[in-house]
Amino acid sequence: HSDYDDPEAGTAVVGYAYHGSSMAIFMETVNSKLAPLRAPLLKTVTVHEFGHEMGLVDNGAPMQTPHVDPEHPPHCDNSSCIMYWINNGISLLSSLINDEIPDFDDNCLWDLAAAGGKDARGLTQPN
């Protein structure tokens, strides 16, 4: 379990990215609280934490448009983006049940493109 878990608030951290090269997934939390959704949840957490490793959101890759959630940096302010601080609610639950994961939103894709990746349409950026 994470030291950032808050039992009083009923929240638990499932994954954590650190040092720009490593990530952790807290399997006891997944297995004890979220086991029925283990596979899609692990996909979602892995992609989210990888986004942090890539420098999203204002975590190394320069933002092309401000989109950091000021209350939960370094996370996206778009609740539909995989980089949102907590993906909860009916839409995420439905997505996990259907084994789908949220996408990076356009702002996150543009940040990756500006850092040398592909743009939001999947096209390589010119040098």
Task: Describe the SSE topology.
Layout: E1 15-18, E2 22-25, H1 27-33, H2 38-53, H3 90-97, H4 106-114
Antiparallel strand pairs: 1-2
Radius of gyration: 15 Å
First-residue to last-residue Cα separation: 44 Å
SSE order, as H and E?
EEHHHH
Strand order of the largest sheet: 1-2
Low-pLDDT stretches: none
What's the story with the biggest beta sheet? 2 strands, antiparallel
Structure in words:
This protein is mainly alpha-helical. It is globular. Helix content is 31%, strand content 6%. The mean pLDDT is 81. It has a two-stranded antiparallel sheet with strand order 1-2.
What would a concise description of this structure say?
This protein is 31% helix and 6% strand.
What labels describe this entry?
two-stranded antiparallel ribbon; mainly alpha; globular; 2 strands; 127 residues; single chain
